[in-house]
Amino acid sequence: MAIHVERRPRVLGAAVAASLALGALAAPAAGAADHGAGTGAEKPGPTPGTGSPVRVNQVGYPTYGPKKGTVVTSATRPLTWTLRTADGTKRAGGVTTPAGVDPSSRQRVQTFDFSKVTDAGEGYTVTIGGKKSEPFTIGDHLYDTLRTDSLAYFYHNRSGIRIDKDLVGARYARPAGHDEAAPHRGDTDVPFRGYGSDYRRNVSGGWYDAGDQGKYVVNGGISVAQLMSAYERTRTTPGAGGDALGDGKLRVPERGNGVPDILDEARWEMDFLLRMQVPRGKPYAGMAFHKVHDKHWTGFPTRPDRDRQPRVLRPPSTAATLNLAATAAQCARLFKPYDPHFAARCLDTARTAWAAAKKHPKMFASDKDSIGGGAYGDRHVGDEFYWAAAELFLTTGENTYRTAVLGSPLNGDVDALFPRGGALSWSATAGLGALDLATVPSKLDHTRRAAVRATVIKAADRYVSDSAKSAYGVPYAPKGGAYEWGSNSQVLNNMVVLATAHELTGKTRYRDAVLRGMDYLLGGNPLNQSYVTGYGERNSHHQHHRFWAHQLDPRLPSPARGSLAGGPNSGLQDPVSRKKLKGCAPAMCYTDDLMAFSTNEITINWNAPLAWVASYLGDVEHMSDQRR
User: Fold this and answer.
1) In 397-486, which ranges are continuous DSSP H helix?
2) Are strands 60-61 and 136-138 parallel, antiparallel or unpaired?
3) Fewest CB within 10 angstroms: 1, 59, 437, 468, which?
4) What are the helix (H) ranges across 237-372?
5) What pLDDT, on the 0 to 100 scale, is given for residue 367?
6) pLDDT of residue 420
7) Alpha helix positions (H), 169-216
8) Which of the residues in the chain have pLDDT under 70?
9) Which residues are designated catalytic?
């Protein structure tokens, strides 16, 4: 039986939309004077600057993987392509394959394939009809720095701690935000009023969710789970190495403490999530508060330590409570070798949260609670129950949780566990449980574990098919063709499923679909736009953020290297995007503008799968080196 799970954007409301519109800048998007996209077959609509019509992965291609690109052209017959080295020497050539009109962009396109070229080098370009692509590299270890940069995003966005210039550079350093020294004592003393109670809680720490300075349990849950899973897969995948995530390897202040750095980062969020549990003796004890954020939307720009808004703690919800149960259970098994006392605390919290959620299974956050912070409303929590039960079973082996997993209507339902358009999101978390059941050793019998693995592989086969059908190789085919808010995170989460299938089966078609997804994200897409700051010639660098607001104030920094933009969003739920992109084709609904929050936001739950995939690809390259 399929369970319908709605994935909603962070509802901001008309008031904040209007306030943001007042602050919107009129600066054009990068390259706006060059209407390269107009060489195709688009229907009337906006014509954003896209540079060269020859689209490639602007970072590059591993020597061992597929090397494909796309050209936007009105031609219907094959065209000649030429691959040249940095000094202009011809290295390879061939003819393109006409692909018709790409429905995601309404562009007439042709594709080309130079996978046979394996000579490493920098500054390669592909030329078609006198038009040259952006330069790129052929080589290995292309994503090692992306792994560390995408993980550094989380330290940059920590709450309650000074961000050290020795770790991030002077431009990004800042005092602690929302700590004891902040107005109203920040997050160390936040009032909660409700259910006949009036008390205060210390909910300090954690990560700021996105461009705003709120902290949301349901978004923090999926994010910290994927960071912990990035580490856990190095323990469960033969040949994968955890050294790159180990102690002293990442930009965190805890380095040198004997704990893998990625777990140090995860713990910063886990400590916050544990503090969000309603204490004993209070109404709904054991549940988790849904979120904490400013009373009103934070103005632009505002560095966290200069935020003078009072903070508010919102009522508990079943979804938040199950996020806490799932992540705390995962935390318990991963931290046990390093800090048994913390691991025991996590497990006790997980059990308590599970029991509270079972007692109160229908406490839903309001879709209308979007003043000062995103609503994150979710009335379908069967997926969270499945995920939490799976993590508790994997950690404890207890029959109570095994029964809850196997008795769930989602168990074995590929459509419910891994929706076709996007496998995972903050409001569709069942797949997290299935992925761990398929990979983490447990007391699940062989037959049932094989069934879970078959579900993962079936989902991955669908994403392989979607990638193969796309002229841009993207493993993403949303229902009705409309791109969702944060579509790039959906692409990446589908890639997580593909990568897991590769590690379960060893079949390269899954790995290659992951690589094609990276091609899309790093420039091989209809906009010729790399969506990761600092990666590629034409990369996003005006994402929506209160402190990283260089577009608004040149004294402030742009987003840090390794920050992922949300990407095309057919909904256009902000004034800037509606004005600039009216009539856009789905994959063209993006603008690199600070105030275009519905297409250009950055969030922890988008950078988390980016870090997971970058870590996976780094390990794939490491294992490729070992085989040579």
Assistant:
1) 399-406, 414-417, 430-439, 446-469
2) parallel
3) 1
4) 261-275, 318-335, 340-359
5) 87
6) 85
7) none
8) 1-47, 622-628
9) 212, 544, 592, 601
The pLDDT of residue 368 is 87
Q: Which residues contact 128 (CB under 8 A, 6 or more apart)?
A: 53, 54, 71, 73, 79, 80, 81, 82, 96, 112
How far CA 209 is from CA of 204, 341, 374, 413, 434, in Å, comes to 14, 28, 10, 31, 25
- Residue 234: count of CB within 10 angstroms of its CB: 21
Calpha distance 237→230 (Å, rounded): 11
Q: Are 18 and 429 in contact (CB under 8 A)?
A: no
CA atoms of 347 and 351, how far apart (whole Å) = 6
How much is the pLDDT for 241? 81
Q: Give the separation between CA 262 and CA 602, rounded to whole angstroms.
A: 20
β-bridge mates for residue 83, sequence order: 92, 126
- DSSP line for 575-610: HHHHHHHTT--GGG-----TT-HHHHB--HHHHHHH
Cβ atoms within 10 Å, residue 131: 17
3-class secondary structure, 599? helix
Q: Looking at the whole model, is its pTM more than 0.90?
A: yes
Task: Report the pLDDT value the prediction gives residue 47, as an integer from 0 to 100.
Answer: 65
pLDDT at 13: 39
Six token digits for residue 479: 């229902």
Closest Cα to residue 331, out of 394, 289, 420? 394
Phi-psi region of 169 (alpha: psi -120 to 50; beta: other; left: phi over 0): left
Amino acid at 118: T
- Is 439 in a helix, a strand, or coil? helix
